[in-house]
Structures are given as C-alpha cells and as structure tokens.
Amino acid sequence: MMALHKVFYLTMAEYSSLLSDLSENITNEDLEQLKSACKEDIPEDQSNNITSSKEWFSYLEKNDKLAQDNLSYIEHIFEISRRPDLLTRVIEYRTTVLKISEDDEIDTKLTRIPSAKKYKDIIRQPSEDEIIKLAPPPKKV
Q1: Which of 86, 87, 76, 26 is nearest to 51 (CA)?
Q2: Are the C-beta atoms of residues 41 and 65 closer than 8 Å to each other?
Q3: What is the DSSP letter of 50?
Q4: Model-level pTM greater than 0.70?
Q5: Residue 121 β-bridge partners
C-alpha cells in the first residue's frame, strides 16, 4: 500500500509540474483563445471570471475535464487552438509519466474524442518515405 502512495505522489508532483510548465507558456492572449475553444463547456459568466491559466486548469479539474490521468480534453483544446508546443508537452507527460503509449492509447479515455486518434501521428516519427523533401529556394538573379 505504501508503494502505491509513493507512485501517486510522484505522479501528482509530475502533474503539478506539467501544469506549471504549461501555465508559463500561456499568455493572456493564449488564454482567451483557449477559453474560446472550450466555450461549449464553460458558461460565459464563469469564463469571464477566469483570468489566468492556473484558474483555467482549476476550473477544468473541478468540472471533471482534467485530471492527472485524464488529459484528453486539454490535448483536444491545444490541438484545435493550434498550440503544438503545449500539446507535445502533454503527450510527453502521458507517454513518460503515465506510460500510456500509442499502442495503449486505443484502449484509454482518449478515444472519447475522435480527433485524439490523430495524436498518434505526432508521437511517432515519420519514416523516410513519409518525409516530404523540399527543393531549395530559387536563387536570386
């Protein structure tokens, strides 16, 4: 039982660290975009009261949209908000801390969001055949 508590606290610390890291990379302008992306889930009067990314994460946690082992909602929000930098951090946490790999992903909560299946392509490296080779830019005369 003691070992289980230790793992929980380690994961909790990693989760807190993840949220802190994400918060540092979310400006006020970003926050407005993120809140807009989840306007169906946050009533406007409550959305107006959220003035920091920490408050946004807290709101999502209180409303069962975010937990240390359930990140699919923010992955989706970061994807539709075109924030691959934030999305990548969440995926790294999921694959290293939670040990949910792309193979396990099919059986997790992630499949509730149809677009989550696309994350597999972000995690895996493309093969040589999939890499698009660009021609060098034309030389100026």
Answers
A1: 26
A2: yes
A3: -
A4: no
A5: none
